[in-house]
Amino acid sequence: MTKPPTSVAPDPMVARLRAALGKRVFTEQKMFGGTCFMINGNMLIGTSKRGLLVRVGKDAHAAAASLPHASTMEMGGRSMEGYIRVAPEGTATDADLAGWLDRALAFVGTLAPKVKPAKKRA
């Protein structure tokens, strides 16, 4: 017996993030059960079933976590300092989403680009 093909509805947050990033150069990568957006090889922001994942850095973490609908991201029961989870209510409007994206861009803009190591020749 063959299984019927499953279709997963596209995550509307992915389209919203693509639009909000505009003409910036970015890549997308499947991570944390969602889609993460990368700039210069550094994780910027991502989607998850529980909300938005925002990289704000350790210095801005406490202030960001104190905002409405925000909490520290947890992975495997471990707190991830520098990363914020924003509940869907916290990104309801484009202005809300832009505020979180601006926080992530401010931090990731301070990071050096990640360069992939050259492949070794056999």
What does this structure look like?
With 122 residues, the chain is α+β, with helices and mostly antiparallel strands. The longest helix has 15 residues, at 94-108. Helices cover 27% and strands 31% of the residues. Strands 1-2-3-4-6-5 form a 6-stranded antiparallel beta sheet. It is globular. β3 and β4 (51-55) form a beta hairpin. It has 3 helices and 6 strands, in the order αββββαββα. It has helices at 12-21, 58-65, 94-108, and strands at residues 27-31, 34-39, 42-48, 51-55, 70-75, 78-86. The mean pLDDT is 89.
Summed up:
This protein is an alpha+beta fold and 122 residues long.
Radius of gyration (CA) equals 16 Å
Q: Strands of the largest sheet, in order across it?
A: 1-2-3-4-6-5
Relative helix content: 25-40%
Shape: globular
SS-based class: alpha+beta
> What is the chains' assembly state?
single chain
Q: Give the low-pLDDT segments.
A: none
Order of helices and strands: HEEEEHEEH
Treating each run of at least 4 consecutive H or I residues as one helix, how many helices?
3
Distance from first to last alpha carbon: 44 Å
Our estimate of the beta-strand percent is 25-35%
Average predicted local confidence, pLDDT: 89
